[in-house]
Structure formats: structure tokens, C-alpha cells
């Protein structure tokens, strides 16, 4: 926090229940506090509007009266010109015009407060004590009329219980919370103030509406970019018709004044320490986004090079080229080699092609002139390696030079960094396999439900219901965040794929469950990139009243897209599990039929049995009844109406197989390009989020080829 933000902050705020578009020509005037109540002329005091705030007011749990909800707040800046002409005491007045047609029974308020964090206006002794308290790193709470100061608050503190009690309920109170610097930026006026969010650390709490009572409880956790900032001061400021609202930050007050003799304090202390650890872990878990680009790259390469092995397509198959045999016979070597090559080669191309973008800013040229100076190669690199438009204003930021262009003297260090990223991805996959094995008890519970038979064969309805369960849960439970819904869906899918038979299903002996595990875990990683740790922290820490604020759990559009893609991939996984069960059921039934026919023939002729010579070449052989057999499965089964064999759907609908093959290869190419963009833009999690979804979709199309 810079020294300027420690000076006293004089706050003049005018608020009204009129919406912002109805407030015309707002201004603040001063009136002398004597019996004459004369207006202070503008020649003595210069007043201007500093910031026009658009207060949030919409809630999903209720709608309040328009005349009881503050819709507009304006801060004013007042400068004295001639102090000798001013009266000793003045009263501020908030004035504005409204159109004749909108005049109604509305309310307007004027607030004046002085936020003095170091008590500079209270004398030298008080100032020294305040500075000593601030530098002691001890948490303390100071309450004033309409605001409270919390010193030395840590971001690792739990979701603090914030309570505001007002006696005058003419209007609903609006509580503004944040650091002192954010409050200063909010009220002093700046062109960077955004609607509804003046600064990243400023939070609003309002409502709920339609409830009798004057006590409002919220869960407040201050924002800050650093995990710990012990010299910061946080402010709780209340806009209300009550001049002295009661503000209570109970958790911080118990930290300041412990109640050692009360058992309830020790219970609170236990939860407080536990929640603090969770909050700290969720704060540091945000650093996982810096690993997201390598996680995406190596998960993509693992899906490309390991999926043939998982499907039983060996790299030493006859008729394959030498490069194919090397890459697919040694998938680990191929993954490492291609990953390092993509990272180093893309970095080298970017450093050689980006000339205008990497130069220092030249103010004598406009952005249009610099865009015209860029060559064709540089524009192509921006489009294909960075996913940016070919303009200078898209690449003039320092993050390209600092985060994506590597000096040649650290090339070896970067190779080690890439290898470390691969090791982290392997550890993540091991964690995924661990979650898969931990889901075994749930699979035993679901096993009777999954093998429920209807009409003589395994029913598909249990799989449809399990797939629909998280979707219905997400759409019906309004406080159910999309990351939690996806996590429930992935855990259920882990338990379902335990039903895939482990026996030899075809001659190629595919390991469908391996592909399913990687696909499910990739979907789960997309939810972590969204911030699953923060979401779980909210559910653990928040008071139950906050669950009514459904807007707190809303997700961004890109996260809804990721959820949709993930559910489509899970539908393919559920379908694969169901079809492998049908296939296995048909193979077992066919084997029982053959054994029964053989026993009947032996009993009839008295022989031990006929020997069957296996056919070679075209993969066909002659059975006991002379029927042709393809891939170990009789063609009579392929033509049957009640028995399914792996590949029947593709044989019956060739367009489906063509779509799966062409789509998987096309998606593999596009996903490779997204991986390149993610490598060059490591600080943006959205690119990696979409890349994870595309990897899951590629694996789903690979499974779809064998339906």
C-alpha cells in the first residue's frame, strides 16, 4: 500500500432510491449550521461529482420495493477556496433534478465521514499509539459511526461473519467492504472505475428483501492478490438511513479479544484454524493455472500416442512405417520428444518473427502505423501461435516479452522445466487413477443397479439416469456451482466404468477403461482450472444465509460450455460401458451355446469332439456348424436382432463411423494448435480450459469409432 493511501479520506456520498438514469444534474451544496442557514457560495467551496456508482440491487431470492432500495450513489469532492469566509460548521445537502413524470415517494441520503487510518487528526499521542498498533501485526477492529476498520487482516482468514444492524429501515442498507485503497479509488473519482466493481478488492453486500427484521448477516472474505499482507487496513462502510448502524465482525473481534474461559470460544477457535488452513490452500491453489499449459500439452500427447496401445493397436503391426512403429511402440519417448520440440520450436519462431511487437514502445508512431510496419510472417505468428488478431495493439503488452520469449542462454533450463511439467502431469494421472480405485466401493453399490435386466438383457435406463443426475442437480439446485456438479458427475462415472468387463472382448483386446479414466480425469481438471478449491471453500465456510444469494455461485459462459462438453463426453463413456456389457453378454451366451451344441453332438455320435482348425490370412475361420467367424465372433451374432457385438452400430450406420474417424483426426489437429497457443499464453486459463475440453472430446470420438 503506497503512502498516499494512509492519509485521511473525507467521504461525501449522496445516495438515492432513484435509478441512475433518473438522477439529473446532481450536486452537493453546503449550508451554514447557524440559525440563518445561508448557502455557502461556490466561490468559497468548489464541489464536483467524483464517482457515480451503480449499486447492485437484484437478488434471485426476492424483489424489494423500489422506494426502499438504494439504486444510485455519488461521491463528491469538495475543495475550499477561501477559508476565512467559511462558517465554522456547515451542513452538506444532496440535490438533483428528476423529470416530472418520475417524481414519486423516493428517499435520498447524504453521508459525511472521515476515514483516518493512522488517526492523524486526533493528536500526536493517539497517532503514535495507532501506528504502534498497525505495525504490531495484531488483528484489531475499530468501530465508528457508519464504518469499521479492521487492521492486519490476512487473506487466509476464514469467511468472516459480517453483521449489520440498523434501526431505521426506511431503506435497505448497502454494505461496501474492501481495502482502504479500494475505498479511496471508489470515492475519489477515477476514469478506471468500472460499473458495480470499482476495484478488484471492493465487494457489495445488500438485501435480502422482504424479510421482517433489521439484522443482516453476510459472509465476507477480503480479496487480495498476495497470500499475506499484514500491513493492510480493510474498511466496512454502510450506506443506510441509520446514522449509527451496528457493525459486527465477530471473527475478527474474537481474534482481538479472546474469550478463553468460554467453551464456545474453543469450538470457534477449532473451526477458525481449520478454515484458515482451507483458505490458505485455496489461495495457493490458484497457482495451478501456471501449470495448466503443460498439463494440456502432455495430456494431449498422451491421448494421441497412448490411445492406440489402449485400443490394442500395437506399434509393430505389419504394413506400418518405421516412424509409426517408433512413435507408437515407445509412446513415452514420443510424448517427451514432441512436447519439448513444440515448446522450443514455437519459442524460437516467435522470437525470430516478432520484431515490431518486441520493440520498446515508440510514442512517435500510432498503433495503426506500427501495425502497417508488421510483416506477413509476424502477423501469421500472432494468429497461429498466439491466437491474437494481427494488429500491434494485440501484442504490445509486456507479458509477451516477459512470459513467452525465452533467451537462448536459458534453453537448457527450459527443457528441464518442460520435463518437470511432464512429471507433474504423470503425478496428476496417478492421482486420477487413485480416485478411480477409491470409487470401487461406490461401484459395488451401483453394480446391481447397472446390471439390472429388462427384457432379457442389460437395461440402458440406469446409465441414462446416472448421466442425467448431475445435470438435473445443477439445473434444480440453484446454489449448485458448475464445478461441483462436474465433480459429482466425474466421481459417478469413475464408479460406472468399473462395470467394463476385463476379459478379452475382441482379438485386439482393447483397454476401454484406460481411455475412459483419462477422459474423465481431463474433464475433472477443467473444473479445477475454474477454481474448485475456492468453490469448496465457499461451501464449507459460508454461513447458511449466504446460500440464498444464488448470484454468488453463477458461472461464466465459458465454464457452462466446458460443462456441456464434459457431459457429452460422459454420455459417450456411459454408452461405451453399456455396449461392452452387451458385447460381453453376447460372447458368453455364444460360448454357452457352442459348448451345449458340442455336448449334444458328442452324446449323439459318441465321439470326443471335432477339432477346429483356426483360419489365417483374412481373419476368418470355420466353426462347428460351418458358419463364418469374423474377429472371433460369429457373423450370425452380427445379424441377430437381440445380441450386440462391438462395432455393430458402425456397421449398421457407416456415417457414424466416418464422423467419428474424421472428427477425431480433425479435432486432434485443432487441439494441437490450441496447445501451441496455450504454451505461448501461459497466464490465461481460458485457453487451457477449452483445450482440456477438446482433449476429452477427442478421446470420446476415439471411443465412438468402436461402437
From TrEMBL:
One of its GO terms (biological process) is GPI anchor metabolic process. Keywords: Membrane, Transmembrane, Transmembrane helix. This is Transmembrane protein. It comes from the Eukaryota. PANTHER family: GPI INOSITOL-DEACYLASE (PTHR15495:SF7), NEGATIVE REGULATOR OF VESICLE FORMATION-RELATED (PTHR15495). The keyword Transmembrane applies. Coiled coil: none annotated. One of its GO terms (molecular function) is phosphatidylinositol deacylase activity. GO terms for cellular component: endoplasmic reticulum; membrane. The chain crosses the membrane at residues 294-311, 331-350, 415-438, 450-472, 478-500, 512-540, 560-581, 658-679, 685-704. The keyword Nuclease does not apply. It comes from Trypanosoma congolense (strain IL3000). InterPro entries: PGAP1/BST1.
Amino acid at each position: 500500500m503506497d503512502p498516499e493511501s494512509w492519509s485521511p479520506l473525507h467521504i461525501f456520498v449522496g445516495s438515492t432510491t432513484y435509478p441512475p438514469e433518473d438522477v439529473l444534474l446532481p450536486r452537493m451544496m453546503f449550508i451554514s449550521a447557524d440559525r440563518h442557514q445561508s448557502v455557502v457560495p461556490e466561490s468559497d467551496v468548489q464541489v464536483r461529482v467524483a464517482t457515480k456508482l451503480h449499486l447492485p440491487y437484484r437478488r434471485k431470492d426476492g424483489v424489494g420495493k423500489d422506494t426502499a432500495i438504494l439504486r444510485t450513489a455519488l461521491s463528491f469532492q469538495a475543495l475550499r477556496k477561501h477559508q476565512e469566509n467559511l462558517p465554522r460548521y456547515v451542513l452538506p445537502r444532496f440535490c438533483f433534478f428528476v423529470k416530472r413524470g418520475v417524481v414519486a415517494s423516493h428517499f435520498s441520503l447524504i453521508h459525511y465521514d472521515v476515514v483516518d487510518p493512522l488517526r492523524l487528526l486526533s493528536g500526536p499521542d493517539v497517532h503514535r499509539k495507532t501506528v504502534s498498533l498497525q505495525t504490531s501485526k495484531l488483528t484489531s477492529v475499530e468501530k465508528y459511526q457508519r464504518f469499521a476498520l479492521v487492521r492486519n487482516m490476512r487473506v487466509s482468514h476464514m469467511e468472516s461473519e459480517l453483521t449489520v444492524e440498523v434501526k431505521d429501515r426506511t431503506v435497505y442498507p448497502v454494505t461496501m467492504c474492501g481495502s482502504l485503497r479500494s475505498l479511496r479509488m471508489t470515492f475519489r473519482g477515477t476514469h478506471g472505475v468500472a460499473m458495480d466493481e470499482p476495484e478488484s478488492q471492493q465487494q457489495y453486500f445488500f438485501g435480502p428483501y422482504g424479510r421482517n427484521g433489521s439484522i443482516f448477516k453476510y459472509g465476507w472474505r477480503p480479496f487480495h492478490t498476495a497470500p499475506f499482507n499484514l500491513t493492510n487496513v480493510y474498511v466496512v462502510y454502510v450506506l443506510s438511513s441509520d446514522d449509527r448502524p451496528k457493525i459486527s465482525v465477530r471473527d475478527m473481534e474474537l481474534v482481538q479479544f479472546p474469550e478463553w474461559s468460554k467453551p464456545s470460544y474453543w469450538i470457534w477457535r477449532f473451526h477458525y484454524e481449520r478454515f484458515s488452513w482451507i483458505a490458505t490452500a485455496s489461495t495457493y491453489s490458484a497457482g495451478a493455472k501456471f501449470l495448466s499449459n503443460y498439463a494440456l500439452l502432455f495430456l494431449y500427447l498422451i491421448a494421441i500416442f497412448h490411445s492406440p496401445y489402449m485400443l490394442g493397436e500395437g506399434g509393430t503391426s505389419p504394413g506400418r512405417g518405421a516412424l509409426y512403429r517408433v512413435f507408437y511402440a515407445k509412446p513415452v519417448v514420443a510424448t517427451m520428444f514432441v512436447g519439448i520440440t513444440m515448446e522450443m520450436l514455437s519459442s524460437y519462431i516467435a522470437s525470430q518473427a516478432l520484431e515490431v511487437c518486441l520493440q520498446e514502445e515508440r510514442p512517435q508512431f500510432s498503433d495503426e502505423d506500427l501495425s502497417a510496419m508488421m510483416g506477413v510472417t509476424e502477423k501469421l505468428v500472432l494468429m497461429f501461435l498466439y491466437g491474437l488478431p494481427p494488429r500491434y495493439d494485440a501484442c504490445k503488452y509486456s507479458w509477451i516479452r516477459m512470459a513467452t520469449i525465452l533467451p537462448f542462454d536459458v534453453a537448457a533450463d527450459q527443457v528441464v522445466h518442460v520435463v518437470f511439467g511432464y512429471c507433474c502431469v504423470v503425478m496428476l494421472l496417478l492421482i486420477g487413477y487413485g480416485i478411480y480405485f477409491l470409487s470401487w466401493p461406490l461401484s459395488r453399490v451401483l453394480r446391481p443397479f447397472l446390471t439390472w435386466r429388462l427384457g432379457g438383457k442389460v437395461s440402458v435406463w440406469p446409465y441414462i439416469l446416472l448421466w442425467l443426475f448431475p445435470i438435473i442437480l445443477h439445473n434444480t439446485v440453484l446454489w449448485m456451482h458448475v464445478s461441483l456438479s462436474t465433480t459429482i458427475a466425474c466421481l459417478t462415472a469413475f464408479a460406472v466404468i468399473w462395470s467394463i468387463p476385463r476379459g478379452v472382448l475382441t482379438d485386439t483386446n482393447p483397454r476401454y477403461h484406460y481411455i475412459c479414466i483419462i477422459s474423465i480425469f481431463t474433464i475433472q481438471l477443467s473444473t479445477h482450472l475454474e477454481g474448485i478449491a475456492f468453490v469448496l471453500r465457499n461451501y464449507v465456510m459460508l454461513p447458511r444465509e449466504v446460500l440464498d444469494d444464488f448470484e454468488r455461485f453463477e458461472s461464466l459462459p465459458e465454464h457452462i460450455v466446458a460443462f456441456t462438453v464434459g457431459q457429452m463426453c460422459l454420455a459417450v463413456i456411459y454408452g461405451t460401458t453399456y455396449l461392452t456389457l452387451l458385447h460381453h453378454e453376447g460372447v458368453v451366451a455364444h460360448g454357452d451355446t457352442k459348448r451345449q451344441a458340442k455336448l449334444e453332438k458328442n452324446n449323439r455320435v459318441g465321439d470326443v469332439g471335432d477339432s477346429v482348425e483356426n483360419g489365417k490370412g483374412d481373419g476368418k475361420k470355420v466353426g462347428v456348424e460351418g458358419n463364418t467367424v469374423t474377429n472371433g465372433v460369429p457373423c450370425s451374432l452380427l445379424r441377430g436382432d437381440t445380441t450386440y457385438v462391438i462395432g455393430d452400430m458402425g456397421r449398421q450406420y457407416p456415417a457414424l463411423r466416418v464422423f467419428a474417424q474424421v472428427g477425431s483426426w480433425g479435432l486432434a489437429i485443432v487441439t494441437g494448435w490450441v496447445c501451441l497457443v496455450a504454451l505461448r499464453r501461459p497466464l490465461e486459463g481460458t485457453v487451457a480450459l477449452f483445450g482440456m475440453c477438446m482433449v476429452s472430446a477427442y478421446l470420446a470420438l476415439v471411443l465412438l469409432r468402436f461402437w
